[in-house]
């Protein structure tokens, strides 16, 4: 028996006709008024103050260790890996404090943080990461594109630690353009074979201890990754040229990322990817990326469902987004589920921070029947911006549909309020599935100008527009 037609609720019949585009299996309910997108204390945003009260950046004893006291030389050529390791170990053994990187250029391999250690990168200091993959061995437990394995260490890494930080006005330089990382994926490079092998291991349930990559393999490590940690702060630093995802908290809680600048040019170099993490606050950051800016994730396919930990209670505020794909993004690795993501007062393609690529979608949600699971509650308000390359909101429940899959997937309660965007291909591209409808997309008090084309709406229930103006006409 075929599914019943989708029901699209908008503020008027005229609104639906003006939306144009594709209305697959959708019917208008005559006389149905919009479900008003509540704001303030009466709506979902009432949760935000309580979430923020539970996110507390770590604090550290007033003790300091300079890496130069452990043999580090800031000449850009001396290998300082041992000095970083020794300074962090001594700080940790002594009950914690600040490991200071003074002005200079310090070359190093992997830096592993320990509990109660603040790595402080002073203004004028640069941590330059080695371009030799062997500098990130031995392998460590990690998640790579949402699948657990053992692989090259992320450039800055912590596992099972508490009370850790990276702070300062200095720079972390991944030097990715100078290393082999791009050759691993570009033009059909060898990363593809390892990527497919790892995904198959995840789907087949191969024990994680047997999923060993690293030497002889080509899975690029993340730049900064915290795994199963809590009480984390990344504050103030500039992060240049990561080899892959830039800041990636995995299975973490109580995370603050504030005031950082990310500049990335390699493929697949997201800005900040909270993954299966909760109580995360990302604010006053600038993202100039060659992929998504902030991308909320929770594991991939069968392996993500096996771990089964959602990302939830995530707040993004006052950021600048310039990136090749999404501004605030959820997915595509979301097989553990995502709920309660809030983003407000962010600017898209700011003239003061134009970036290398214009954002394609200020809000980009990616799911599929291969991923399964749910996305419940993505709330956006007070965004401003210009020059959006494609749609303002793209919800795609058929992401990478060539992958197949038969898992039930749910995407519901996507809201945008008080947003002003000048220039986009369209406002909405909503791709639900015939078997799994997209539910509850609501826009309220938004103004969109210089919109080039019509919306596309497929298999969507409960679409509501209230006081939404497109090219001067109320929808």
Structural Rg: 23 Å
| Unreliable sequence segments | 1-40
Supply the CATH architecture of the largest domain: 3 Solenoid
E-strand count: 41
Distance between the termini: 35 Å
Which percent range describes the beta-strand content? 35-45%
Whole-number total of structural domains: 2
- Report the principal-axis shape: globular
Query: What is the overall number of helices?
Result: 6
The CATH class of the largest domain, by name, is Mainly Beta
State the helicity in percent bands.
10-25%
According to CATH, what is the topology of the largest domain?
A: Pectate Lyase C-like
The name of the CATH superfamily of the largest domain reads Single-stranded right-handed beta-helix, Pectin lyase-like
Structural class: mainly beta
Tell me what the structure shows.
- With 475 residues, the chain is mainly beta.
- The protein folds into 2 domains: 1-33 and 270-475, Pectate Lyase C-like, CATH 2.160.20; 58-238, Pectate Lyase C-like, CATH 2.160.20.10.
- It has 6 helices and 41 strands.
- The longest helix has 14 residues, at 191-204.
- InterPro entries: GH28_Enzymes (IPR051801), Glyco_hydro_28 (IPR000743), PbH1 (IPR006626), Pectin_lyas_fold (IPR012334), Pectin_lyase_fold/virulence (IPR011050), TAT_signal (IPR006311).
- Belongs to the glycosyl hydrolase 28 family.
């Amino acid at each position: 028996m075929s599914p019943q037609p989708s029901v699209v609720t908008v503020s008027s019949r005229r609104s639906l006709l003006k939306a144009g585009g594709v209305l697959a299996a959708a019917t208008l309910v005559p006389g149905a008024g919009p479900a008003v997108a509540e704001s303030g204390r009466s709506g979902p945003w009432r949760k935000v103050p309580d979430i923020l009260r539970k996110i507390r950046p770590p604090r550290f004893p007033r003790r300091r260790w300079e890496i130069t006291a452990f043999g580090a030389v800031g000449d850009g050529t001396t290998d300082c890996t041992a000095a970083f390791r020794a300074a962090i170990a001594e700080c940790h053994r002594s009950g914690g404090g600040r490991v200071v990187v003074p002005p200079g250029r310090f070359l190093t391999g992997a830096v592993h943080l320990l509990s109660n250690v603040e790595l402080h990168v002073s203004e004028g200091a640069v941590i330059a990461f080695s371009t030799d993959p062997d500098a990130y061995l031995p392998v460590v437990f990690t998640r790579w594109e949402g699948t657990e394995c053992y692989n090259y260490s992320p450039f800055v890494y912590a596992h099972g630690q508490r009370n850790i930080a990276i702070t300062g006005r200095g720079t972390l330089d991944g030097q990715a353009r100078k290393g082999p990382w791009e050759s691993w994926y570009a033009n059909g490079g060898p990363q593809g074979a390892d990527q497919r092998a790892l995904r198959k291991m995840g789907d087949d349930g191969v024990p994680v201890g047997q999923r060993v990559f690293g030497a002889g393999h080509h899975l690029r490590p993340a730049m900064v990754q915290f795994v199963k940690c809590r009480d984390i702060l990344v504050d103030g630093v500039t992060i240049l040229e990561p080899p892959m995802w830039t800041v990636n908290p995995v299975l973490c809680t109580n995370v603050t990322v504030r005031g950082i600048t990310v500049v990335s040019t390699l493929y697949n170099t997201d800005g900040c990817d909270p993954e299966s993490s909760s109580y995360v606050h990302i604010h006053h950051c600038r993202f100039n990326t060659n992929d998504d800016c902030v991308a909320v994730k929770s594991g991939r396919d069968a392996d993500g469902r096996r771990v089964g930990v959602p990302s939830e209670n995530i707040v993004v505020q006052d950021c600048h987004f310039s990136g090749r794909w999404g501004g605030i993004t959820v997915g595509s690795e979301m097989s553990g589920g995502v709920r309660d993501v809030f983003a407000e007062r962010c600017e898209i393609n700011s003239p003061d921070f134009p970036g290398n690529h214009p954002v394609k979608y200020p809000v980009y949600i990616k799911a599929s029947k291969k991923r399964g699971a749910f996305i419940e509650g993505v709330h956006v308000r007070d965004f401003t911006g210009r020059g959006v390359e494609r749609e303002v909101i793209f919800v795609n429940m058929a992401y990478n549909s060539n992958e197949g899959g038969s898992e039930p997937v749910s995407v519901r309660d996507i809201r945008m309020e008080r947003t002003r965007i000048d220039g986009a291909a369209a406002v909405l591209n909503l791709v639900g599935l015939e078997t799994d409808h997209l539910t509850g997309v609501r826009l309220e008090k938004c103004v969109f100008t210089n919109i080039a084309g019509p919306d596309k709406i497929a298999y969507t229930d409960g679409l509501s527009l209230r006081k939404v103006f497109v090219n001067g006409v109320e929808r």
